[in-house]
Amino acid sequence: MKKIFFLLLLGSLFSCSSETDKIIISSTKYVTKAYPEKARIWDTITIEGNYLKSISQIRINNRFVVPIEQQENSIKFVIPPTIHNQKVNVEVLIGLSPVGRFSLDLIGTFPLETNFLVSDENLRCIKMVSKDIAFVIADSKLCKTIDGGYNWTLIKDFKESNLSSIFFINENQGWVATYRNSENIVHYTNDGGKSFNPVFEKTIVSQYIKEIYFSSPNRGYLLTSNGRIYETNDNSNFDLKYEFPNSGNIRPPMFSYLSVFNNTLIASSYEAFTIIKKKNNFFDYTSFNKEVTNIQLIDENQAYAIIGNQLYFTEDINTNWNKTSDKLIGNFYFISKNNGIGTFSNPINNYEMILQTYDGGKNWTNKFTFADRQNSQDIDFYENVGLIVGMRGHIWKHIYE
Q1: Using CA atoms, how far apart are residues 149 and 15, in angstroms rounded to an integer?
Q2: Per the database record, which ranges form the IPT/TIG domain (predicted)?
Q3: pLDDT more than 70, % of the chain
């Protein structure tokens, strides 16, 4: 009887000991802290906690990464360029079992994995109407996203016509410019692309509508590639308001960019070395000794422009333009007077990079490098969120911190 009691007691002790061990294991807090909460591609993330040398794997959005440093109370790893989502979910595992989870947000530039990569279409002319909703030209197609660029749906395939420009003021109201041979048509939709009606039709030999801008459903501008500017106040009658000298020549200079802020307008030509200006209903132009590409008004007076592959700024579009730095910039977009991003092609390997400035272009910092054969075509922002589109279906997102 005593032996039976002793065995029962011994079994009870072992049972309690085993259960206690399980409680200790399950209640151990491996991860106590992770920082920073916002990070860029290639940034280092630090995890702090206990018994972290026993961690065997780190999983980020279902992709495994190798720590660059692992100690008993800390682990460090790098955000790889294979991450394609703004929300980054991190799991810390022992074997196959997660023992810690946390999330962080990507900022800066990072690539998106979209259905365009399958179709290998060239993307141009991105227009954002909110942080989630945007429209883009994909060869002959107009496409739309409602989730910030991760998924895109076909709105309309214009097939045999070439798409030259788009502009949307909201999710429903927008304009699409097409040309076929010499026939130029601007199509208008007020139902998000379910139907389109022509509002502008004109024969322009060897030229096309290069840019569209509307401030309301009725008031807007069209810029043709030969430097003609049309204006409408009813989205029906488009009056020719300005015609650049020599625009009627067989080979007129090419105009590429248009920027409008209230009643001020500027347009640029990389062949005529010229910026057309409209202020208070008066048109004029300024000539330069270098090609002029992208331009952007910050307000009715201040503007940025790429002149001779370098960024220039003016406090008044009617006065001098001043170079901000010697940095070579291809394309750019500013969300405020000081904060902007620019593109730069590395002369050594020809890889394109995204640079960022916080002081109006005086200083630039390399923030992201594209992979081989990846090139950007256009940039647009809505508040602090931007989309960069490029050749062969590539899209990148940029989020200002």
Answers
A1: 56
A2: 35-96
A3: 91
Q: 106, 128, 161: which is the final residue of a domain? A: 106
In a domain, residue 20? The reply is no
242/393 Cα distance (integer angstroms)? 36
Among 299, 243, 296, 246, residue whose Cα is nearest residue 271: 246
pTM as predicted? 0.88
CB 34 within 8 A of CB 102: yes
Q: Do residues 50 and 156 share a domain? A: no
Using CA atoms, how far residue 17 sits from 22, 92, 308, in Å, is: 9, 27, 77
Tell me how far apart the alpha carbons of residues 188 and 24 are, in angstroms, rounded to a whole number.
67
HEC states along 175-205?
EEEEEECCEEEEEEECCCCCCCEEEEEEECC
Contact 277, 266 (CB under 8 A): yes
| Residue 344: inside a domain | yes
Is the same domain home to 189 and 265? yes
Please give the residue range of the domain that contains residue 44. 30-106
Strand partners, 51: none
Q: Tell whether 273 and 368 lie within a shared domain.
A: yes
Q: Residue 24 domain-assigned?
A: no
CA–CA distance, 125 with 289 (Å, rounded to integer): 28
Question: Quick one: pLDDT band at residue 28, thresholds 50, 70, 90?
Answer: low
Whether 136 contacts 389, CB under 8 Å: yes
Task: Note whether residue 379 is domain-resident.
Answer: yes
pLDDT (tens digit per residue) in 281-334: 899 999 999 999 999 999 999 999 999 999 999 999 988 899 999 999 999 999
Q: Are residues 221 and 366 in the same domain?
A: yes
Q: Which residues contact 121 (CB under 8 A, 6 or more apart)?
A: 138, 139, 141, 392, 393
Task: List the end-to-end C-alpha distance of the chain, in Å, as a whole number.
Answer: 75
Give the total number of structural domains in the chain. 2
Does residue 48 sit in the same domain as residue 179? no
Going from the C-alpha of 32 to that of each of 46, 177, 340, the distances in angstroms are 11, 55, 36
Determine contact, residues 241/233, Cβ cutoff 8 Å: no
